[in-house]
Structures are given as C-alpha cells and as structure tokens.
Model the fold of this input.
Amino acid sequence: MDPLSVPLEIREANFKKGNIVPNASFEEATLGKNDSTITDFNLAGWNIVGTNVELVDIREPAYDKTEAATGNRAIKITRTEADVDDLTRASSGVISDFIPVIPANYELYYDIKLENVVPSTNVDRFQNRVNEDIDIRLIYYDENKKEMSPAVYFEFMGKDIDNSFKGFGFSNYYFVDHFDWAKVHGRTWEYPFSEGDMPEGCRYIKIFAGLKCGGTMWVDNIDMRISKWSFTPAERMAALFDSSYSLIDLLIPKPKTIDNRRTLSLEGKKLAIVDNPGATQERKAAASLLSKHISLAGKTAEVVAGAPSGAGQDALVIYLTKPGQTFGNDLGAEFARIAGQDQGYFIRQRDNRVILGANTDAGLFYAATTLSQLIDKEGGKLEIADITDSPDFAGRSSRMMNYQTDWYIQHAATLTPAEKDSIRSERDADLKQQIEDVDFYAFYKINKLYNEYHQLSERWWGKDEFFNKLYSSVGERCRQYGLAIRPAVMFNPYIHLGMEQPERLLPDSLKQIFSHVDDHSFTMVKNLLKPALEAGTRTVMFCADDYIPHYGIRGEYTLFNAKDKARFLNLADAQHFFINRLKSWLETDWNGVRLEFVPAPYNNRFIDYGRGTADAYYRDLAAHLDEDIPIIWTGNTVRSLHYDLADIRRAVNVYRRKPMLWDNTPYARTVETKNGGYTTNYPAKSVLCNLFEPYDVTYTGPFLDQVDSHFYNNDIGFGEISKIKYLTFADFSWNTADYDPEFSLYKAMVHSVGVQGARLLLEFNDAFYQFVTHWSKARTEKKHDVKYVPTAAEKSKGEERKEKMLSAFEALGPIDNPNLKKALKAEMQRKIKEWNEIAI
Done:
C-alpha cells in the first residue's frame, strides 16, 4: 500500500518487463489425441481445471475464424445447465503456473467472448445475476508459495474485501446472450477501490480463467503488468525532461496527421494574411490571432482581402480557404481528407504560401490556433508541417466559475455587510477573469462552456442578476469566435428536494414547487434558460441526477407531485412529456438548440441500486424518447477510471442508444470526501496524487464508436490549476488514439510556465503530497480512534515534510504567474491548517 517502500530502480525494472503472463495468448501447446475438437492438450505455463475446456485453433475445420481474438488459438469453455453442480458450482477453465510479482500495483486485461451465459443458480429458483460465474481471479502466494488470503483492507467499507475476483465487469448482467470479442479490464470492484494492489507479503500469483455457469466463454490474450500507479507523478514524468521537443511536438491538441516537418525563417519576409471580404467572426478571429502571434515574434503581418501584389519569394502569405475559395490552388485531395468533418482542417505549404483549409469557418479558426503555436517567438521562425486534423468529439466542454447567488448573499444572516460586499467584489473580479478565459479555451479548441447547476442554489427558479450577467458577458466574448466556442447551460429542477430523499419524508411545500405537467413550472424553466439562450447558448442540459426522491429502496425513483401522479403512469412518463415539451420549445423559439438529459440512474452502479426498477425506467423512457436527445452516463460508477466494452455495452442495452459521457475523474484520485480517492481510503498512496492531474481514463476497444459525439468534462475550468488540467482534456478529446496523459501534462505545463517552471511545479507537487500523505495517515488514525494524538516522532516528521513543502513553494519564484502561485499557496495553507488541527 506504500508505493515508495519499494526502491524506484526495482519498480522501474519490473515495469519494463511488460506482460508477466507466460503464453498469454495460448499459442504454445502440445496436442494429444483429438477428433474434431481439441480437448486433449497441454498448455505451456498453464493447467486445465474441470471439464469441457477446449483449445481453439482456427486453422482446424472445427473452429471458426472468430473464435480467437488474435493469432490462431484461444481457450473455449462450454457448459450446460446439467454440467453445473448446484452444491459446489465449481469452475472449469485454465490456471497459470506460479508468476512472480513484487509489492506494487498491477493492471489486468483479457480478451473475452461470450454466448448464452446464464447464472449458475437456477433462474426459476433464485432469479440471480451472473455474479461470479464468469470466473476470472488471482490466487495469491507468499515467498514460500503458500496460498494467502485474498483479503485487503478497504477504508471505504471499513473492512477487508476479497481481492481475488476479477470478473466484476459482468457480475451485474442478468444474462449474456452474445458478447463479441472485447478487451475487458479485470477488476474486483470499482472506484474508490484501488484496483490491482497485491496483498501484503504476496510474492507469487496464479491467474485463473473459468466459467461456473451454463454457456460458452472464449478467453485470449491475458495481460498483467505493473501499472503506472506504482510511481509518483514526478517519477512518471522524469524522463520527459531529459529530451528536447519541437513546437510541433508540443502542439495542444496533437493533430492526427503530421508529415514533412520543416522550418521556415521569418527574417526578411513580407508577411500577409489573406481572407475573403466580409469575413465571418470565426475568420476575423483567425486572422487577428495569427497577426497577434506574428507580432509576438517581432514581425508584422498585413490582413488583406485578396492575394497581395508583389508576393515574391521574399514574402510569406497565409491563406484562409474553404471549398470553392481556393485562391487558384489545387486542394481537392486535402479537402477530401476532411470530408464530412465540420471542424476538420488542414495546413499545407506551397512555395511562399501557407494554406489553412477547412470545411467550416470554425475549422479555419482551429487551423489558425494550431499555426499560431508553431510560430517561434524567440527565434523568428515558423515550424511547419503537412497537418490534417479533426476532433474525435464534436462537443468538448469546460465549466465556468463558481459563485454565490444574489439571493444567498442577501439572506446570509451570518455575513456582515462588509463581508457581503467583499463576496460581490471578488465575484466581479472572477467574472472579469472568466471572460478572458474564453480566449484561452477557444485557443485550445474547447468549444462549450457550461455553468454548474448547483451555483443556482436550491432556489434554482429565482431570478439572479449575476447569472444573467455571467451569460451576457461570456456570451458576448464567445460571439467574437462565432461557432468556435459557445456557452452552454445546465439546470436541475429537483435540487430543492434534497439529495436522494425518500418521497414519504418530503413536505408538500417542496413537492409542489415543480411539476412536470404544470404550465407554471414550465414557465419557471423557460425564464431560467432565456438569459443563457439569448447570450448564444446552443446546448441545454436537463439534469435529473441526485435529487429525485425514491420510493422504498434507493434507486427506485418516483413521482412526488400530486398533479403529476394524477396525470402520469410513472416518472419515465412524466419526464418523457417534459423533455418533449422542452425540445419543442427549443426547436420553435431557439432554432434547434441541442438538448441533453441526465437521468437519475446515470451509471451502471446506480442502475444496480434499483434492483430492476432502473431497467424498467429506461424501457419506458428511452424507447420513446427522441433519438436525437443524448442520455448522460458517467461509466460504471460516479467517478469511473476505466471504460471497457463490458461497461459500455451494458449501458447501451439499458439506454437503448449510445450514452453521452459525463466525466468526473479529473479530481477522482485527490478528492478527500468519504467516497474519495487515495487521500481518504489509501493514505500511503497519496504520494501518487497530482494537483495538476491530467485527464486519465483508461479505455479499451472501439471506444469512439460506442459513445455520443459530445463529451462533458466535470471539472471547474476556472483558475490556473484547472486550466493546466483542461489542456490535457483538449488533447484527449481531439486525438484519443495518440493521447499520453504524462506527455500531455508535460506539454500543458510547458505551454503554461515553460520547461523549468514545469519541473518546479512537479517538485512542489511531490513535496505537497509527501506532506499530505503524512496528514492523511494521521487523519485516518484519528478517524479510527478519536483519542489518537501523533507521537513526538510523527509530529517531527510532519514538520519536516511541511518545511520541505514550504521550500518547494518558495522555489516557484521564477514562475511568472501570480494567480497560479496564489492558488497553490491556498492549497498548501489549507493542508497545514488541517495538519495543525491534529498535531497541535
């Protein structure tokens, strides 16, 4: 549980080994006597357990080519209901020989295919789910190869948990009729459980892959290796500082195609930017941006409406062009490469011309932001390449500032008039910064800025002048960029009901505030949304998460308003009515604004809470809801660190459409609440945390084909720390295939504070979380024993780490970003205060 207890060189040496599973794809085998199917065989590094286990070989007539994920061979287990022993429910499958491991965090993946899998407990008897019947597990052994208990202590539950079972991705399926080949993440549970830890003292493992129930299971390509969560951020990124990178290498977002790199000198060049007369806002913004960055390199560029006269070899002319506006250049092949991509663009150099081409004006602006990053401000050069790019996600969001509403400030009895004035003054200063941040996010190709509905408070329907001011101000700045960036708005008309309340306990006064059928309620929603829509909002997110009351068990969400109960069959019926009414209004009065919906059971875990009621809810809602309305999904749980096709296909089956991702992971590992990350549940692992956590969700398979084309990233985008983090999300959402979280964070830090500043930030983060680790251990001890007081040695060690943190903060002096240093100082002072509350 303490990553730093193992020397770095040992962790690195084992990390470099890669997959530690012998004969991972089952290609090495010795065959015995077989007829058509292969049931008599020996596997190198593996042993057979039970019966009905076959070795697939797709070169043999008995096997179809689809029966191996890769290569020629795989394991196939076929069981019937008669084959399953009701007493033991023993598995059939394969088990590996001993595999040596070190005390570290490991990740396990396997390719799997399934058909007609039904629970091992008789359906007529127990109505069970798959549970542990898809039986992937690890068996742990000590240094003497004696089997160990699989228990690991989990602070979130306050007890040991069985860490051996790794087939959880399928456990909550009712059955599996068909599941085509997919790479699945082997896991025991989900966040906040730290997947992949070895039990204390474990030195060997065996891997078992089997089936307990009726059905057919194929397994291939078992992969287990040390994960990067055995290293601190500074350790993971250290090697990046040993190399130098070009401006092309450092582009954010990284383009999909980069060819023919070269450098053009700007010395002695006459520079011009050519755009068409009557240019749109996007094109004006593109030309202005290029002029600005050229001027930062000490040069000037004239913006002209046609090809400049006398543009000889001593000139460099930048053209902005769309199909039909090619200025005489043959660009058919280039436009063909971005066909159908509204935001796609390309950059080409032809002699003394640099051509920015796109299908839309927003695409031209994105091309200009890329070219602007390639202007060497110090060397008077332009790094150029043949670049072609388009985003993986058409919608890429950030979140606007937090603030206190006018109503809250006015009615806060504990605040003095001076304190209220101070809050208003700080709020206005934040708004000024938020407006400037529009330029930042547009530059890095984030194209939607949402509010956060909690900022409206429980009195969400009340008129709030600052909300109106926020949208009018941000909308005005967004209009300078046309469709390249727009505000978006979310609202939750249930928030006044309180978090996850039983319906029977709610007073009538709260139940009557909002009704799905009532005209007055609909008018409240329209009045709330109008200021945002008037400011240019093109996306409305209707949130029904966390605050809808339940009947009986949590997850059985219910109607609560008397008018609704009289009018509708159930909650799905009521929400279907309201969503259709809202969509009709948006289409009629606001020219087809995009409407998104967040349901109450918005992840697989919450669907499970309902014990079947959520499945019925989606049957009634999604089957009748307009297919153009995406339904939000946060993954297997609220903060999902992994997406695989076991999770996604289950969501698609229930949602009856591709889910739209709402991602809560940017703060998952650092959050300090009860259901939080390392600092709450794994104190010694706090050293793995990062104040500048890059976007880092592991996904497998054809990810983009399975989800909606818009992506909501739920981290506040306001503030210098968050802006660094959001650059990595921009990188991911444009080019998921080439995304590397550590290198993306390196790029983001270099863009923000330079190479030396990036090194200093990582050193501060390392010192900060060394101190947080010490505090977290003490906090956990205090939680278990209220009388706990740190020993003199523990206090001394805490003070020593505090001083190192303070020194690391002082070393940030050369960084020319006072707002960033102010934010880091606030984080540091908060943690010192919390340590002092325990230690003094």
Observations:
- The domain at 254-389 is CATH 3.30.379.10 (Chitobiase; domain 2).
